[in-house]
Amino acid sequence: MGRPLCLRPRLMAVVSCIPPGHRVADIGTDHARLPVYLLERGHAEVVIASDIRQGPLDRAARTIAAHRLTGKIGLRLCDGLAGIAPDEADSVVITGMGGDTIIEILRDVEWIKAKNLILQPMTHPDRLAAWLLASGFREPRRLEVSEGRRTYFIFHIEESKDDEQGQRHSFGA
User: Fold this and answer.
1) Residue-wise burial string across 87-111, b where 16 or more C-beta atoms lie within 10 A, e elsewhere
2) In the chain, what percentage of residues exceed pLDDT 70?
3) How many angstroms separate the first and last alpha carbons of the chain?
């Protein structure tokens, strides 16, 4: 068995936004470092690791196997949230993608507003933040994390806001 994973500050900040015991979907998982960390430490109940390409899922499977977690982390080959059912996750993590890509993933998924959402855009964080607000999400809690020479912005949204009539705002700004 591999040594327990240690995460860099960026992903540790993501972990700090996930309540213990949550079911987590890691969208665009790549090496599955976050899912492995969450299960090794008993922080998450269930973790789904998804990616749009087979190569990253193969890397994820190798990381999972090295930590003897095969069968304990669900691997999904899917585009964004297309392969994730609303009742499978309490927290949804989307990290390491451009802000515009994150918007495209979230745009038509109404159920996402009821989830604990952690987003870490690599580009266009201001564009993503503006879109979230225009689309009816609550003002995200913003975390700034320095790693080496780079500063990462993480947006944490615990729940969506409702308008005065109690209706959900619609997606698609």
Assistant:
1) eebbbbbbbbbebebbbebbeebee
2) 90
3) 47
For residues 116 and 16, what is the distance between their CA atoms, to the nearest angstrom?
12
> Is residue 170 pLDDT above 60, yes or no?
no
Question: What is the residue-averaged pLDDT of the chain?
Answer: 90
Q: 27: how many CB neighbours lie within 10 A of its CB?
A: 27
Q: How far apart are CA 70 and CA 74, in angstroms?
A: 9
Sign of CA dihedral 30, 88, 101, 136: negative
Of 14, 158, 157, 25, nearest in space to 89 by CA: 25
Task: Give CA separation, 74 vs 26, 33, 142, 161, in Å.
Answer: 10, 14, 29, 30
The pLDDT of residue 139 is above 50 = yes
What distance in Å separates the CA atoms of residue 39 and residue 132, rounded to the nearest whole number? Answer: 29
- 57 Cβ contact list (under 8 Å, min separation 6): 29, 49, 50, 51, 75, 76, 77
Cβ atoms 29, 50 nearer than 8 A: yes
